[in-house]
Amino acid sequence: MHGGDLAHHGGAALPAGATGAVWRAAAVSALGGLLFGYDWVVIGGAKPFYEAAFALATPWQQAWAVSCALVGCLVGASGSGVLADRHGRRPALLAAAVIFAVSSVGTALAGGFAAFVAWRIAGGVAIGMASGLSPLYIAEIAPARSRGRLVVLNQIAVVLGLLAAQIVNWLIAEPVPVGADAAAIAASWNGVAGWRWMFAAAAVPAAAFVLGCLVIPESPRWLARRGRWDDAAAVLRRLGGVAAAGPALDEIRAALAAAPGRRLGAVVAEPRFRRVLVIGIVLAVLQQWCGINVIFNYAQEIFAGAGYAVSDTLFNIVITGAVNCVFTLVALGTVERWGRRRLLLIGCAGLTLIYAAIGGAYVAGVQGWPLLLLVVAAIATYAMTLAPVTWVALAEIFPGEARGASMAVATTALWAACFVLTYTFPLLNAWAGTGFTFWCYGLVCAAGFVFIWRRLPETRGKTLEQIERDWR
Fold this sequence. Notes:
This protein is mostly helical. It has 23 helices and no strands.
């Protein structure tokens, strides 16, 4: 049986508005985004305390402590495509959830720096997996007219995870006396136990993610590609209702007939799809090299350079997290109205101008609230443009016959770029100064504007199959 008992109703995949079942499945998948955000940013608030506890004194040790998780991100991102394409989207998400739960507890219990690094790398594997799998799964279950908002839901979960980590860090940490040295911090509550609880807190949402992955349906598009048409039809009925299942399955069948399943190498051998993969890789790298993540991961250094003490820095981090969350909600309302291409162009242009001002402020020695406002403006711009919309575009543009593998290539490039960014910031900052460093990020954003203007088409309102036909 090939789903022929389902009525033929035309070409739209799923109803125009997402059903409650789609939203619930997307929300569970988005827990991967929440844990991605939490695990990624918790390091920023814990940084002064685990550095004191492990006596990390050199810039190389400090950079490795922050960036080591990115090694795991590369492993998780590169392996997620094979796992998702071979075994399904849901088992891959479940594997990421289990790794999140185990690694958060392991990091909290680390007895030395080597164990800390090993568990952070394990957590990075889960981050790398979830970063690509969550938006991929959501895109494959979502109706065309709601797909942008539903993928942005994953980014909202990411920033909620960021904000949760920032709030948890702020609430757990006791005030640090002005002028306290590393020995005093290491002997304090923060250095002995506080930073450990910061990491351990992630085990709670990780457990919820594990339970949720046990009940969500498999992607109907993955089931169809495996020839499991009855299962795909059942999932489509569950997600969109009986009336919508027939048209959705017909469109998936037509797309499969036009493009039988092939390995990634065979797909990218075609110039048109090689072009799509290059666009995806550039977008992924741009999202990292635009520089925002250094504000989250090196908040202590950035705000210290602006004249803030450690306790004030923790509060400022909460402010930036709240702004990040609010403006990601703005993207929820604009991604379907303004489109992907326009929002990405706005983000690149806005960050170019803001970084020019931030660099000038550091060079001129400006401190205090003016610099804080510029940092907040940069985060707000990023939160409503490059942060969520990059994931929407990546989840949409790749051909279905190798979507999982293509997404894995793009997310691997993203985490490789993030590793370079995170590892080089303290070195570049020490060599050239914070102002020059932000000017470099501004040049990257300007180059990104030109690339998007020339290469990226608009995908708003189209089904995944329509987007694939346009590339053909």
